Amino acid sequence: MTETFDKKSALAFIVAFGVVSLFADMAYEGMRGITGPYLALLGASGTAVGIIAGTGELFGYLLRLASGRLASATRAYWTIALAGYALQMAAVPAMALAGSWQAAALFIILERTGKALRNPAANTMMSRAGEQIGQGWAFGLHEALDQTGALIGPLITAIVLARHGQYTTAFLWLGAPAIVTVLIVVAVALRYPWAGNAPPKAKSDAKDGGLSRLFWLYAATAGLIAFGFADWPLIAYHFAQVKVVSAEIIPVLYAGAMGATGVGALIFGRLFDKYGFATLIPAILLAALAAPLAFLGGTSAAVLGALCWGVALGMENSSLNAGVAKLVPDEIRANAFGIFSAIFGIAWFAGSAALGALYDISLPALVGVSVTAEMLALLPLFVLLKARK
After folding, report:
1. What is the DSSP letter of 205?
2. Are 35 and 153 in contact (CB under 8 A)?
3. Domains within the chain, CATH numbers bracketed
4. Rounded distance, CA 152 to CA 43, Å?
5. More confident residue, 377 or 210
6. How high is the mean pLDDT of the chain?
7. Residue 146: CB partners within 8 Å, gap ≥ 6?
8. What is the pLDDT of residues 197-247, one digit of tens each?
9. CA–CA separation, 55 vs 324, rounded Å?
10. Of 203, 160, 232, whose CA–CA distance to 326 is shortest?
11. Contact residues for 102 (Cβ-Cβ < 8 A; gap 6+)
């Protein structure tokens, strides 16, 4: 049996993991696409929605510090990944049991916790496959399959809401892809049990087993991007409050955004392998356009804003991860993914809380903070680009 990745097995592994993520995203993105209006229905304010979304991200991303270190120390990549998938998928249909916005918030946090537990281990295994086919292409292809599920999931909730009008029914329907996810990831683990033991082959800018200055510059860029990037529940909450689109169309918009995320991941993933970190510049500019379009415009601007938001998210989920793999050696990569994710998550929490609070005060102020943070993200990126010349 092959015990290291070659180009053929690396591509097959990425596609297999992409299918896992397709069904996973079908479940949890279907859930996340309606959590904003669902929380509003249960009595949550705009500030509460922003804090809940940010807290879920914060707790999830901070947990990646521990799960990343655990994966690096134990090399139990599959065990950790399987446990994370099981917890995350269990939280999705459990949302149907929430009788208050506080209970719903708990399930949202549990879902993020499951993703955090499995993320560094899964990313490390995929980055090893990426050594053979290109990090940008590996993470971009995986993200495209991932977002195919993220597109289908919100469409499922839209159909269920149109036919039944009940959020709880929609969450129960999402239990089906959640179960399929767990079954498929177990099958992939059985097919590629050696994936967690693939030997390192790539060189990096890190010195003496530590994290380089370039890594920290990169983390600063990611943190500023995250701070200014409005979470979808707040955007969906805004659409519902001002009725820029009907309630049934909100998950359809989210599905469109997820489709744009998949396309963006493929495009920026390929470009990253060809042009490197400079590829992030146009993606950051697109992220800066999302907030003014989504929060200050009418229906057409809302649609365009959702698409910009989706393309920028594709960059975040593919090129940012590919960049970590480029900068960090294999033996500490899981730990680096955890640290990088923790920085990203702290910034996302702070940004989500701030933007949620500003929503109840001033939409122009919300947009101003969002755009400013995205523009500031270019500064450490330019320093990184100059240092790598």
Report:
1. S
2. no
3. 7-194+206-387 (1.20.1250.20)
4. 28
5. 377
6. 86
7. 18, 21, 22, 24, 25, 262, 265, 317
8. 755 444 544 444 578 889 999 999 999 999 998 888 788 888 888 888 777
9. 24
10. 203
11. none
